[in-house]
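Q: Hi! First time doing this. I have a protein sequence and I read that you can turn it into a structure. Is that right? Here it is:
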Amino acid sequence: MKIGEFARKHQVTVDTVRHYMAEGLLTPLKENTQYVFSEIDDEVMDNILLLKSMNFKLDEMRAYLLFQTMFSANSLSGSGSFAPRFQEKLEQNRAEIKRLEEMNALIEDRLKGAEEGFRFKRGVALSFIGRLRCPDCRQTLEVERPELLHNEIMSGELLCPACGRRYFIRGGVLADRPLPVTSMPKQGDISGMIEDYVRNNDDSYVLNIRELYQKCAELAGKNCRNAQNILISGESSSFLVSAILRSMPRQARLFVHIEHDDTIIKYFQEDLFPPETLIYSGDIEKAPFQEPMDYIFWQDYDGVYLGRKLKLYPHARAQARLDCAKALVFQRDLDYPDEKRFFADLKKLGWENVSAVKTKRIVLARESTDMNIIEREGELEVQFGIYSFKTLG
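A: Yes, that's right. Below is the predicted 3D structure, encoded as structure tokens:
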């Protein structure tokens, strides 16, 4: 029979047949310019497909196929002579099955966790409670109705016994007001958000942002290397915070300030928090801690500037360092702070600029979630930077 009929009989493509011929596994006779396939070729092809189904590679089946074509008309006779080869393949297949079962178990655990929904694992460490004070009368706060997980408070209230000021804990976040119940995102929502971000910005833009985050991680790692108390303030970029957290010393005491209800920061970064971490949501002037900070990373200068309420945590050591994210917008009709205004504002707060790392000028797509603090109808040319400051004097 001709090659096309032979391929159809064994339910493979002509290219597959030619490949086996090129590998020397099929050796049909050639009449004039065409190959003619015999019953022996049928048996060889059956054996190739059989051995392939057993997970044999082509080079592993050569000797067995040669034996079949030279000495036997029975597709399975002589297999005893090759018993060690078959036993070895059997053990390989068993090992592969075990590996795949273990892999499937990991996938099932991940899917099970996604189906059950996200659960917070970190709260307000009991070691923090003794250091928390009422900002008005400086009294130690008392704990009411705490729900604990691994010696950390996941929910409850803190009360000042002198003036009655209350703080509230929900999902392990401390707040100056009752926090509403916030539905957590699903795994598919997160992956979809990332895919949308990449799709709505061109490759050059995304690569510039990633490079900036990497530089920020290096800068933060250098500036907070010996810090005991670290403050991260703002809620503009969870990915930027992740870069910082990977660089900070694990022995440091971390304070995270977010002004609005935004427990999603824990969803993204809870596993990166050092053992002593306190997340506070609310007005920074009402924060129940006054620890002197050795290092501060401030994300929201632009946001608070536009809101006309420029406030930064006031307690910093004499040699403290401050890194601050800033966007430069090259569009004249926007009331947006430039570098000169930025430096002047930080100087009023007691900080002097010493260095900066910046992206190139890059075009921001209208659909991008970046810079959503300003209204715009089209593309925007921007430059992002991380600016380092030291305390004045």
